[in-house]
Amino acid sequence: MTDKPRVGPKSEEGEDFSPPAKASRGLSLRALLPNAITAAALAAGLTGIRFAISGDWDMAIYAIVLAGLLDGIDGRIARLLNAQSRFGAELDSLADSISFGVAPAIILFLWSIQDLPRIGWFASLAFAICAALRLARFNAQIDTDDQPHKLAGFLTGVPAPVGAGLAFLPFYLWMATDIAEFRNPVFVSIWLAAVGVLMISNIATFSWRSVKPRRSIRLEVIAILALAFGALLQEPWWTLAGICAIYVALMPLALYRYGKIKQLQREGQASSAG
């Protein structure tokens, strides 16, 4: 039995993709928009490196954030237009590896850890390689049925766009507080390598599928999101640091919930077997 082909653009959420009904030469007209968005995300990531080379640190981070926003919508637009393609999936994976692996590693190296030329460069290499390995693992498993985290509504490890956002946490705090210790190359190197390990780890993390607020509180959720957007405009660095802190704080909760789901599944299997 052969594996069905993977098509895209994909996302980090772990959705399934269905191949187009009929193979065609080149890209269809409706596939131009999602793939153009993916290419724009790649351009944003590369432009972030350019800003970092010129020392324009805040614009470098904004470019990576923009790449993350574009990465979050390209796959959804492709599915909305029924424009998934293998070309889009491959382009998306390459764009993610550069925008959320290579670009953050180079930006943080230029910003801080180049003061540790050997250890700092190894930390940057580790992060970029871990991002590529995570994306390769995601692509390799996308058509397999043996994905316990995905079946339970979770992701395996920290997604690459989230990992890029977490990697910049020292920068957010440095910009918000102007405390020089947050730019310490040893601290940044350790943090960067730790985030890289989280990306390739096997821990269960929340996906958008697993975040389903009850109907009774959805108006409150809309209000909180609106306030968060306003805070992002007024105090971007504190807001981004807060988002990172919330995500890290929720990781133990994700492990706990996944454990409870697996326990209930085992109990259900034991009762049905009995």
Structure, described:
Helix content is about 70%, strand content about 0%. By secondary structure, it is mainly α. Strands 1-2 form a two-stranded antiparallel ribbon. The longest helix is centred in the C-terminal third of the chain and has 38 residues, at about 235-274. The chain is globular and about 60 Å long. It starts with about 30 loop residues before the first helix and ends with a helix. Residues about 1-10 and about 10-25 have low confidence and may be disordered.
How would you write the strand order of the largest sheet? 1-2
Number of helices: 10
Radius of gyration over all CA atoms, rounded: 20 Å
- The secondary-structure class comes to mainly alpha
* Low-pLDDT ranges: 1-9, 11-23
Please report the total strand number as a whole number. Answer: 2
Mean pLDDT: 84
Distance between the termini: 33 Å
Report the order of strands and helices.
HHHHHEHHHEHH
What summary fits the major beta sheet?
Answer: 2 strands, antiparallel
Instruction: State the helicity in percent bands.
Output: 55-70%
- Strand fraction equals under 5%
List descriptors.
68% helix, mainly alpha, 274 residues, two-stranded antiparallel sheet, 10 helices, disordered N terminus, globular
